[in-house]
Design goal:
CATH topology: Trna Endonuclease, Chain: A, domain 1
CATH architecture: 3-Layer(aba) Sandwich
Order of helices and strands: HHEEEHHEEH
Structural class: alpha+beta
Shape: globular
CATH class: Alpha Beta
Radius of gyration: 18 Å
Number of domains: 1
Helix content: 40-55%
Strand order of the largest sheet: 1-2-3-4-5
Number of strands: 5
Strand content: 25-35%
Length: 139
């Protein structure tokens, strides 16, 4: 029994796993800050980390409503806005758009509102930067 225990104790964590866990923790903190920032700007948070069962739909970091618009928001932690937008690939945009369609299909009351895809990027020591209608800005 002691041989099995010592083999388990000697196992070292994989560096890739540690980096991935650290990145997930940073992302979760960034999403909390982004949601707080949006609330200060008058948005109502409808969902956070929304994942639909719709095939091909990606996770949507934040879904918020303000006035007559529902915003589907991707949160990125990068050193500047250009890097944040570059991190949202065309494939990821399509997945977010499919996720938004599924979200709205399940909530008919929201279907009459305008739809927008935003991004919020955060960098250490800086205020969050909210890029409204980020998809069209990037194109």
């Amino acid at each position: 029994m002691t041989g099995a225990r010592s083999a388990i104790q000697q196992k070292k964590p994989r560096p890739q796993l540690n980096r991935k866990l650290a990145a997930l923790a940073r992302g979760a903190r960034a999403e909390i800050w982004a949601a707080l920032w949006l609330r200060l700007k008058g948005y109502k948070i409808l969902a956070r980390r929304h994942r639909d069962r719709f095939p091909g739909a990606g996770e949507i970091d934040i879904i918020a409503k303000k006035g007559g618009v529902v915003a589907f928001i991707e949160v990125k932690t990068r050193k500047d806005a250009a890097h944040a937008l570059a991190a949202i690939t065309p494939r990821q945009r399509r997945r977010l758009e499919k996720g938004a369609e599924a979200f709205l299909a399940a909530r008919p009351a929201l279907s009459r509102l305008g739809v927008r895809f935003d991004a919020i990027w955060l960098a250490p020591g800086r205020w969050p930067h909210h890029m409204i209608d980020a998809w069209r800005q990037a194109e």
